[in-house]
């Protein structure tokens, strides 16, 4: 069976969205995500973060695959707190999301932006 961490990395590489069901949150295109321990939490950042407070951590007490092994459901107290899926399944505009994601990846590929973003994400 596929590990959650491996699937999370695949989803981000393919283009993933994170959905947060609490009121006033929403759906974001993932730039990076990492599972952390003690307590279990998902550290994540959407594309185009403006500053380090845009790196978030969401605690959970249960994580499982959903829709076979396509999506990842993070739950706390029996309720979904985050849901990661391909952006095509997220309800976001397909054309608009594909364009924005391509622009983000194009910017990461220039100069040393990818290294700087990794450092930004790791140190926030």
Task: Report what the structure shows.
The chain is of the alpha+beta class and about 120 residues long. The protein has one domain. It is about 30% helix and about 35% strand. It is built from 3 helices and 7 strands. The chain has helices at about 5-15, 95-110, 115-124, and strands spanning about 15-20, 25-35, 40-45, 55-60, 60-65, 70-75, 80-85. The chain has a 7-stranded antiparallel sheet, with helices on one face. A hairpin with a 4-residue loop joins β5 (about 60-65) and β6 (about 70-75). The N and C termini lie far apart (about 30 Å).
Task: Give the gist of this structure.
By secondary structure, the protein is of the alpha+beta class. It has helices at 4-14, 94-108, 113-123; strands spanning 16-20, 26-36, 41-46, 55-59, 62-66, 71-76, 79-86.
What's the layout of helices and strands?
Blueprint: H1 4-14, E1 16-20, E2 26-36, E3 41-46, E4 55-59, E5 62-66, E6 71-76, E7 79-86, H2 94-108, H3 113-123
Antiparallel strand pairs: 1-2, 1-7, 2-3, 3-4, 5-6, 6-7
Write out key terms for the chains shown.
124 residues, alpha+beta, 7-stranded antiparallel beta sheet
């Amino acid at each position: 069976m596929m590990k959650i961490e491996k699937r999370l990395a695949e989803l981000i590489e393919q283009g993933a969205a994170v959905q947060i069901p609490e009121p006033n949150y929403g759906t974001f295109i993932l730039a990076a995500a990492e599972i952390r321990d003690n307590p279990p939490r998902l550290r994540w950042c959407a594309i185009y973060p403006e500053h380090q407070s845009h790196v978030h951590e969401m605690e959970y007490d249960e994580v499982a695959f959903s829709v076979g092994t396509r999506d990842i459901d993070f739950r706390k107290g029996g309720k979904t707190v985050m849901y990661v899926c391909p952006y095509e399944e997220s309800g976001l505009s397909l054309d608009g999301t594909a364009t924005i994601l391509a622009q983000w990846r194009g910017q990461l590929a220039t100069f040393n932006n990818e290294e700087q973003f990794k450092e930004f994400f790791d140190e926030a």
